[in-house]
# Entry
Amino acid sequence: MLVDHFELLTISHLALLGLRLPRTHSSVYRVLSRLTARKYLTARPRWVGGGWGGSSEYVFQLGTAGERLLGRQGRRKSLRAHQLEHTLEIADAYADLKVAHSVYDLLMSPADLLGMRAIIEQLPHLSFDILPGSENLGYAEPSLMMASQQQKLRERLAEVEDDYDFVLLDTSGHESFMHTLGHVYADEVILPTEADIANWETLQTTLRSVAKIREDGLNPQMRVRAIVVNRYQQGTNFGNAMVQKLIEQYRELLSPHLVMQTVRVKEAQGYGLPVVAYDPSCQPAQAYTKLAEYIAHGEAQV
# Structure
């Protein structure tokens, strides 16, 4: 009924709007694959992010069997790209209402009015908790900068950090105040990059930001744990040259496990699954597994 009501939904929408999905990613994939194979659902690709830096995912629409089950034969629409995005934005807005608060509210509200635990989401199909993001996060930046609130995220996460073995923060690659908030909190930083000139410049910017935060005393103990080459296309002259440049300049920081770009990665992205769950035997999945072991047990970097 959810897919029929909104016409198109992503896996995240299905979870947030109340569909009881399995707790493991591989089980989610099997359930949705079974529903699409039996034509209760139809999966269609959607490009996310735009340009060469985006990724893809699948969105789900009622299939022919699903239409018959709900008595909706002939109601399925053929949506163009802009219509698809508009339809998904409606689902996004509804999901935002279901998720009462986000990291934006966390940063803009005092602790006595909005506690950290009231914001954290525990979705039934995941084995970890989530602090919801927000498209409005950028609007918090001017207020926090004017109040010199570089420690704001650290202070709020301190409310719950003893409840967890570790906290993972995913920040943007470009320089921003929100980027700084994450670095002020972090004990260690893992820097993913791709073997191209644009990502090389981003890597340099991030390393300068890390150095400045340490030098300014905002987080003097933070260290770069590893640089990880991601989506590497083996055999290209430029890619090989960039990897060699990384080895020459950052040998001590560079992870020995290159993550290749393969079709299996794109397929996993389409289903909204980590590649280690989608196909554990493929090269990227094995590289990520080895990377996790390297991060957990390898020698500490500086």
Summary: Residues 2-98 form a domain with the Arc Repressor Mutant, subunit A fold (CATH 1.10.10). The first strand starts at residue 41 and ends at 48. The chain has 14 helices and four strands.
